[in-house]
């Protein structure tokens, strides 16, 4: 296990765009990927991006069987993506609660595209492309934002739906679901 300290909001590197991984670096990512997996698992997160453990490279990891932080969410197969990108498949957006390991104890409502296509390279060099929707689409958009120096707090749609997790939980029936 190599659980790494989480880089928290306020750290300038979280606001910087991360660098693409080139072919030389691709073969040296094993430790980084293991660290991302161990750190995400330790915190029960839905996903994690390399800048969150202090590495400004375009690598994300997401997926879980059961997510501690979002217990009502359906499983997403654990995926590592290098140089990931996405495009929306329609203009439709959905408002849902988000949190972030870099912003502990806070949740807020963020609009995300409901259906997206995303693609990237796996650690073995294979290219994958998927079309997904709902929470899976939300997680990927959140993680790719990290690679562009964007945190969910920058995208809060309504400041009345933003606050401390434990306080919000007293006033909203769910703070991990979609807001209707
Ligand atoms: Ni995050």
Descriptive overview:
- The model has no long low-confidence stretch (mean pLDDT 94).
- It is built from 4 helices and 8 strands.
- It starts with 22 loop residues before the first helix and ends in a 9-residue tail after the last helix.
- With 180 residues, it is of the alpha+beta class.
- Strand 6 and strand 7 (127-133) form a beta hairpin.
- The chain has helices spanning 23-26, 30-43, 134-147, 165-171, and strands at 47-49, 59-64, 76-88, 93-98, 106-113, 115-121, 127-133, 162-164.
- Helices cover 22% and strands 29% of the residues.
- The longest helix has 14 residues, at 30-43.
- A 5-stranded antiparallel sheet has the order 1-2-3-6-7, with helices on both faces. It has a 3-stranded antiparallel sheet with strand order 4-5-8.
- The protein binds nickel (II) ion.
- Nickel (II) ion binds next to helix 3.
Largest sheet: 5 strands, antiparallel
Low-confidence stretches are: none
N- to C-terminal separation? 40 Å
> Strand order across the biggest sheet?
1-2-3-6-7
Enumerate how many helices there are, as a single number: 4
Content-based structural category = alpha+beta
Percent of residues in helices: 10-25%
| Helix-strand topology string | HHEEEEEEEHEH
């Amino acid at each position: 296990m190599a659980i790494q300290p989480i880089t928290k909001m306020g750290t300038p590197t979280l606001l910087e765009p991360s660098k693409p991984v080139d072919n030389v670096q691709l073969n040296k990512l094993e430790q980084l990927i293991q660290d991302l997996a161990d750190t995400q698992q330790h915190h029960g997160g839905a996903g994690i991006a390399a800048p969150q453990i202090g590495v400004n490279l375009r690598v994300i990891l997401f997926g879980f069987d059961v997510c501690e932080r979002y217990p009502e969410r359906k499983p997403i197969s654990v995926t590592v993506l290098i140089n990931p990108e996405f495009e929306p498949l329609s203009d439709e957006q959905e408002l849902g609660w988000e949190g972030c390991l870099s912003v502990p104890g806070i949740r807020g409502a963020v609009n995300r595209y409901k259906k997206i296509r995303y693609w990237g390279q796996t650690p073995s060099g294979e290219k994958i492309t998927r079309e997904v929707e709902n929470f899976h689409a939300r997680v990927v958009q959140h993680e790719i934002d990290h690679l562009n120096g964007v945190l969910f707090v920058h995208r809060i749609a309504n400041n009345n739906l933003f606050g401390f997790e434990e306080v919000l939980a007293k006033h909203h029936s769910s703070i991990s679901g979609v807001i209707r």
